């Protein structure tokens, strides 16, 4: 799956993603809840303000309706000389066309509240118009006069025209058939529409700063927690590949200290076992060499030639078995430094040596470089190629690379191996009937040695039968282990 491939393989990467996603989801949910509360609060405050403004407008309309027609202009003139009231007021013969602003949830709440209030307060009102408009180019009378054409002292205490214009609530109500009163006013909060969008630039900036600080702290904490695990993994990998490593530092959290302590103890026990094994086989080599030599000398004293030959044959076989066991240990535990190895060139040299000996070997594959122990890897691949030639007559070698991973297949053209016997081929001294007939001098140790060396490189050696006959040895070297 695509998601599985995108997920980091390291614990640090996975914990970082979990922390980042957790913080992002928490921030998103908190912002949604907070934004919803802000909107509800803004709508409630705007509705309350619109209710009072609608009541004031209804009282003003009722007052102008009660005045004689010729008194209305005189009263308006006096109001302007006094500095105005809450409304800019004008009387027109017909409603003035007003271009409304873009409708929003908040402006819709205000307009509906004002209309409802007017209907409640003035049930006999024949016709009225309510709208929000921007002050720029706003007409105030039937003769085309706009807000900008009026003297500043008429509107400066009532409306905000500059430097930052605020939306104007325009209420027009019919007083009689040829008389309309024109009321223009601001909301108590002139810029109330800004509350409709709680996700403003400054708020988003603050959220981003907070989010960045939390993420940096989270990543630092995750890195601090996982760094000892990475060191432990590196030590385990190095030790598993045969290197002698220093004990892991027992510091950090209590759980990690316990893990490091257990790993160090396990490493020490395994190292002691390896050292004991080397000393044991060295002792065996030293102790058995002398009695075998003595027995060979004593067999020379036998008068019976046939018995002397039988004794020599048994002693030679015993000496060969001892040497084979020692060689198995030494070949699987070669102490050498890892370096860059051109695997294709190594295989070419092995194939060339086999061809000089008269064997048929086909090699295919491009250049591949791995980090390995050169001699150990050469012995493992040489054992596999020799087996394919000895027991299969000829060999085909295919080298391929997929990303960081390397796959090497060596196929022979022998009779193959019974499926139930495949798992036993790596056991010491195990030889099948076909192997004994093809190579009587073998000891059955080559495959075990090869697998131990490949395992020490972090790889795998798999044996399968080819559908068309013959045995296939697949060497898988994982990129991370190289």
UniProtKB/TrEMBL annotation:
> What reaction does this enzyme carry out catalytically?
ATP + protein L-histidine = ADP + protein N-phospho-L-histidine
Cited Pfam families: HAMP (PF00672), HATPase_c (PF02518), HisKA (PF00512)
User: Which SUPFAM superfamilies does the protein's record reference?
Assistant: ATPase domain of HSP90 chaperone/DNA topoisomerase II/histidine kinase, HAMP domain-like, Homodimeric domain of signal transducing histidine kinase
Q: What is the name of this protein?
A: histidine kinase
Q: Name one GO molecular function term.
A: kinase activity
Q: Where are the transmembrane segments?
A: 12-34, 204-225
Q: Where is the Histidine kinase domain?
A: 283-481
Instruction: Report the EC code(s) recorded for this entry.
Output: 2.7.13.3
Its record classes its membrane topology as:
Multi-pass membrane protein
List keywords of the entry alphabetically.
ATP-binding, Cell inner membrane, Cell membrane, Kinase, Membrane, Nucleotide-binding, Phosphoprotein, Transferase, Transmembrane, Transmembrane helix, Two-component regulatory system
Q: Where in the cell is it found?
A: Cell inner membrane
Q: PANTHER family, alphabetically?
A: SENSOR HISTIDINE KINASE ENVZ (PTHR44936:SF5), SENSOR PROTEIN CREC (PTHR44936)
Q: Which InterPro entries match?
A: 2C_sensor_his_kinase (IPR050980), HAMP_dom (IPR003660), HATPase_C_sf (IPR036890), HATPase_dom (IPR003594), His_kinase_dom (IPR005467), HisK_dim/P_dom (IPR003661), HisK_dim/P_sf (IPR036097), Sig_transdc_His_kin-like_C (IPR004358)
- Residue intervals of the HAMP domain: 223-275
Which species is this record about? Chitiniphilus shinanonensis
